[in-house]
Amino acid sequence: MPQEPIEFLSAVLLVSRDPERLAKFYRDVLGVPLEDERHGETLPHWGCTMGDVHFAIHPVEDFPEDRACAVGSVKLAFTVFDLDGFVGELKARGVEPLYPPRDEGFCRMTALRDPDGNHLEFTELGEEWFRHLEERRAKGSDILERWKRDCR
Length: 152
Fold this sequence. Notes:
This protein is of the alpha/beta class. The strands form two sheets. A four-stranded mixed β-sheet has the order 1-4-3-2. The protein has a four-stranded mixed β-sheet with strand order 5-8-7-6. The protein has a domain at 10-68: 2,3-Dihydroxybiphenyl 1,2-Dioxygenase, domain 1 (Roll), CATH 3.10.180.10. The radius of gyration is 17 Å and the shape is flat. It has four helices and eight strands; from the N terminus they run βαββββαβββαα. A hairpin with a 7-residue loop joins strand 2 and strand 3 (45-50).
């Protein structure tokens, strides 16, 4: 067990057999601000920063050491601030959610599948969740404050 618990997520990487198609869906249909990326030995891929997390879509060939790297087996949840408006935009683009927005108590949510079959949830978070985040930050669980305190 590590000395300290892992508290932060640094990246979410999706792998795809058709990463350009998948990136286009995330960028053009969902509005994720993906940009072309290429660094090191990687093939062209797409990425952006969402909150404190790097989000990227890579070709499956970028991970030859991981033969078990699956496609379409991820469940992601994205925060939106106007779920009804977002669903309206999806429908205008010909994308039908798996179910209508529903209240889960701490959030309202809906879901869909991306072109690779990944399950995507879209959540409009409620006051309870934002209070939870404020409490975490007050206890020092903000990545920038932690870096300033421990690494500078």
